[in-house]
Amino acid sequence: MNIQIFGLSKSFDTKKAERWFKERRIKYQYVDLASKGLSAGEYKSIRRCLSYDALVNTDCRTYKDEYMAYLTPDAQEEKLLLHPEMLRAPIVRNGKDATVGYCPDVWEKWE
Questions:
Q1: Domain segments of the chain as ranges
Q2: CB-based contacts of 69: which residues, under 8 Å, 6+ apart?
């Protein structure tokens, strides 16, 4: 199992996800979305499993400031890579599988 947690340091769900894996002694790699973001390849891999609507937090301030609702889908995805704070956190990835949010029922099936 190769777990990656893409999260935000102030996100309670990210902290809960980290705690869930620590309690089960499952090793994971933590990536801070605010400082590191997602690479284009990581984003494509995650998008194969999750929809754009599931990944994007439309309530965040940056989403409104960047006028994301008025952009074409390709332009939205480019802006999303530039502003990773618009992503919902945590995004947990295990190889080709991915979840967004706190999903322990799905993670148990990965073991």
A1: 3-95
A2: 58, 63
